[in-house]
């Protein structure tokens, strides 16, 4: 029987369909998760490794002599050394479809929260401060504003629909421009990267993290945005130079921001923590039970599919499949 190691507790209902077909090693709900060191010491005996909030680096891949597939709990997989895995012929699985709706919802929520100052007002009311001026430009009306989406994939498209529901106009940039019929279907306008920065009242980031995108948003990038604009990131933290963002917010280069991802999670730049024009959430964009169960099932379907000799759609390096 093929053996699969899972780095963190998952609900029994996700494992039950494979009963009698695969053997799972999972930490108890009380223990919650295996440490990297614990997983490293165990992984050598397993055919599959399912990673939740852990690393799949070259060291652990080299240790796992019997490993035939490795999976990540998320659409991103930069915590796995997938290039090295590809080099040694190890398939890498992700969860590309099940995060879409929940992540798009959270991004849309952060867009509104940033533009309408929700977190700031919540903090003030709790502190006994009541600021309700008749006339103020501290916040921005969402209806009629222009949203710039950077990365027009599954999540970017769903954010587009939700933003249009609020009455926003949508422009976008993607390295691979959508077909004219797709642009017409979604009612969006394509612009080059710098033009999106120049014209958007709010930027919503949905690009993958690849080396070329490291610190794509930096001091110079923020200067290209409107001083009245907002920046929202539900993609990957390392795309943004956090110190440059903090400086841009402090110096009113841009008006506000909302972040669900950070450069060095769970650590957050201290300057961001002290600003009242940024809304922060702890990388929970996909945190609904419906989405998380779907992600678990999608990852397990990919792992077990590879182990059964199939070619699952969610293998990110299909060239490794024989």
Structural overview:
Keywords: Amino-acid biosynthesis, NAD, Oxidoreductase. It holds the Pfam family 2-Hacid_dh. One of its GO terms (molecular function) is oxidoreductase activity, acting on the CH-OH group of donors, NAD or NADP as acceptor. Belongs to the D-isomer specific 2-hydroxyacid dehydrogenase family. This is 3-phosphoglycerate dehydrogenase. The chain has 322 residues and is α/β, with parallel strands linked by helices. The chain has two domains: 128 residues, NAD(P)-binding Rossmann-like Domain (Rossmann fold, 3-Layer(aba) Sandwich); 181 residues, NAD(P)-binding Rossmann-like Domain (Rossmann fold, 3-Layer(aba) Sandwich). Helices cover 35% and strands 14% of the residues. The protein has 13 helices and twelve strands. The strands form two sheets. The protein has a seven-stranded parallel sheet, sandwiched between helices. α4 links the parallel β4 and β5. α5 crosses α7. It starts with a strand and ends in a 15-residue tail after the last helix. The model has no long low-confidence stretch (mean pLDDT 97).
CATH third-tier fold name of the largest domain: Rossmann fold
Q: What percentage of amino acids are in beta strands?
A: 5-15%
Strand order in the largest sheet: 8-7-6-9-10-11-12
Helix content: 25-40%
CATH architecture of the largest domain: 3-Layer(aba) Sandwich
Instruction: Please state the structural category.
Output: alpha/beta
Count of helical stretches: 13
Please identify the top-level CATH class of the largest domain: Alpha Beta
Distance between the termini: 21 Å
Number of strands: 12
Radius of gyration over all CA atoms, rounded: 21 Å
Stretches where pLDDT is under 50 for at least 5 consecutive residues are none
Q: Could you describe the largest sheet, including whether it forms a barrel?
A: 7 strands, parallel
Tally the structural domains. Answer: 2
Spell out the helices and strands N to C: EHEHEHEHEHHEHEHEHEHEHEHEH
CATH homologous superfamily assignment of the largest domain:
NAD(P)-binding Rossmann-like Domain
Q: Overall 3D geometry?
A: globular
The overall average pLDDT, rounded, is: 97
């Amino acid at each position: 029987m093929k053996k699969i190691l899972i780095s963190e507790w998952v609900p029994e209902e996700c494992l039950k369909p494979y009963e009698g077909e695969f053997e799972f090693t999972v930490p108890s709900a009380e223990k919650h998760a295996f440490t990297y060191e614990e997983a490293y010491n165990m992984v050598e005996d397993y055919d599959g490794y399912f990673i939740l909030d852990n690393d799949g680096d070259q060291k652990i891949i080299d240790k796992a002599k019997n490993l035939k597939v490795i999976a990540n709990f998320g659409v991103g997989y930069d915590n796995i050394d997938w290039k090295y895995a590809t080099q040694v012929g190890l398939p890498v699985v992700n969860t590309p479809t099940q995060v879409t709706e929940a992540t798009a919802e959270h991004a849309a929520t952060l867009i509104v929260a940033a533009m309408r100052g929700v977190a700031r007002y919540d903090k003030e009311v709790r502190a006994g401060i009541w600021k309700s001026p008749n006339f103020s430009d501290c916040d921005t009306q969402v209806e009629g504003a222009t949203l710039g989406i950077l990365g027009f994939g599954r999540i970017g498209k769903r954010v587009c629909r939700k933003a249009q529901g609020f009455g926003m106009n949508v422009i976008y940039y993607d390295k691979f421009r959508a077909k004219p019929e797709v642009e017409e279907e979604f009612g969006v306008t394509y612009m080059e990267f710098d033009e999106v920065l120049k014209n958007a009242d709010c930027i919503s980031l949905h690009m993958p993290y690849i080396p070329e995108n490291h610190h794509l948003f930096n001091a110079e990038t923020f200067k290209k945005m409107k001083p009245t604009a907002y920046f929202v990131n539900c993609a990957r933290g390392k795309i943004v130079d956090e110190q440059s963002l903090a400086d841009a917010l402090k110096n009113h280069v841009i008006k506000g921001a909302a972040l669900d991802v950070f450069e060095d999670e769970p650590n957050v730049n201290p300057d961001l923590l002290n600003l009242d024009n940024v809304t922060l959430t702890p990388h929970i964009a996909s945190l609904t039970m419906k989405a998380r169960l779907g992600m678990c099932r999608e990852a397990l379907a990919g792992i077990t599919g590879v182990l059964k000799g199939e070619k699952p759609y969610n293998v990110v390096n299909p060239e490794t499949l024989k």
